[in-house]
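Reopening: structure tokens for the L45E5XJ5 complex, inputs below.
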Amino acid sequence: MIIAIDGPAASGKGTLGKRLAAHYGMAHLDTGLLYRAVAKALLDAGLPLSDEDHAVEAARTLDPDRLDEKALRGAAMGEAASVVAVLKPVRAALIDLQRNFAARPQGAVLDGRDIGTVICPHADVKVFVTASAEERARRRYTELAGRGVNTTYEDVLADIRQRDDRDMHRAVAPLRLAEDARLLDTTELDIDAAFRAAIAIVDAVGK
Ligand SMILES: Nc1ncnc2c1ncn2[C@@H]1O[C@H](COP(=O)(O)OP(=O)(O)OP(=O)(O)O)[C@@H](O)[C@H]1O
Ligand SMILES: Nc1ccn([C@@H]2O[C@H](COP(=O)(O)O)[C@@H](O)[C@H]2O)c(=O)n1
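Re-run output (same inputs, fresh job):
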């Protein structure tokens, strides 16, 4: 079974993806980490985020099982990732990696922006997770503050809005609701309630 989860920044895709994968005994890939890793490779080499050739080279050498999540998290890398994510050759270079991951024998949950629309258009289940920008910013701000990151709610909200705008309006594989995706708005749901709602969606499709 393939479960595709898409949605805007900080909507809870990763949280749900991890929990669904554990629940069903499936592999999980947070595809945002791939774009973050490409951006980090460019920044570490002192190259501009517009350097397509080096970005593609970095994308081709990624191993989905060896992504250093800790080094890739953070608002700055998220923003940088959304800049390299507009580059068509970079997206193309990451397609096979994601589809190969989706074909793992135990099944796979992939979360990102274009999983249900481009990477796995034939996924068994597609969930589009969202919440209001204000609620997403509140959650992300709480998360960052808990980790001791010095930021403000206003800055987090501005970052989320800017990233959503770039992701929804880029020419290639923009973030959008697939026609056959189920919309899961978690604005009024806590993590457990959102998880139960996602399970209900998956189980209903699986029957
Ligand atoms: N339903 C929910 N209620 C409250 N908090 C939530 C909920 N879902 C997720 N969170 C919290 O919101 C934050 C963002 O969640 P998460 O990292 O899963 O989002 P994401 O969509 O994967 O983010 P990104 O787009 O940056 O990769 C985390 O701190 C997570 O614990
Ligand atoms: N399938 C995807 C996944 C991510 N992106 C881009 O990467 C940025 C960071 O992603 P996070 O999920 O870690 O926040 C995101 O803003 C997108 O620009 C993508 O294009 N496609």
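The mean pLDDT is 96. The chain has two domains: 1-30+108-202, 32-93. Marking as resolved unless the reporter disagrees.
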